[in-house]
Prior knowledge:
Blueprint: E1 11-15, E2 24-31, E3 37-40, E4 46-50, E5 55-61, H1 63-74
Antiparallel strand pairs: 1-2, 1-5, 2-3, 3-4
Amino acid sequence: MIDDEKMKVGDEVAFHWGDEAPDTVIVITHIGYDGFIDGMDAKGVLYASKNPQNWTKTGRHFPLVAQLLRQMGDEK
């Protein structure tokens, strides 16, 4: 994680296997009650229940993701 900032829906995060280059980059779409994250990559592949300790924030944030998900929830 970047500094002490908490991860939020819309944050872009990266998983690293050990080298400097990120192996997987996703945008967070949900944070569970247990703190684990769900997200989607640029190809639309979904990732579920990932331990946030294994991911780092890239510094990019997409507020429209959170806005879209809120709007979808309001339409129920």
